[in-house]
Amino acid sequence: MWKRKLLLAAGVIGALGIIGGASAWLLWPQPENWTEEAKLCIGDKYAGFWEASGQYSFRMEFENNCYRKIACGLDVMVSNARGTVKDHGTVTIPARGEMPGAAVYSLPTTSSSGMAQTARNCRFV
How far apart are CA 49 and CA 33, in angstroms? Predict the structure, then answer.
């Protein structure tokens, strides 16, 4: 009798392990195809603090120097005397020669000055 319970318990644990492992494998995020080649195509037109109608933001404008559309993932952290703002966003930059010729990313802030740290990874779309 105890052998039967032990076998049943082992079977249930094994089945749960297989289901859990398979679902983790299926749902695990696949690595993105970020490339240095795509990253090198992007030029910064402007990066700095911006004021429009009394609203402050940290703004970045990008231009694409290649003839393929590029998407970039951005990580931005802006620190000033009133605190720190962090964001992760994406921007799609049209191919060279297409209109509009640039892409803009903007992060609202509480001040028109401070220190910003940015990082980006890009890929061809």
Answer: 31
Residue type present at position 61: E
52-68 pLDDT, tens digit each: 888 999 999 999 988 88
Give the C-alpha separation, 112 to 58, whole Å. Answer: 8
Could you say which DSSP state residue 18 is in?
H
Nearest to 95 by CA among 71, 74, 60, 73: 71
The Cα–Cα gap between 19 and 9 comes to: 15
Instruction: Indicate the pairing of strand 55-64 with strand 42-52.
Output: antiparallel
Is there a contact between 73 and 44 (Cβ–Cβ < 8 Å)?
no
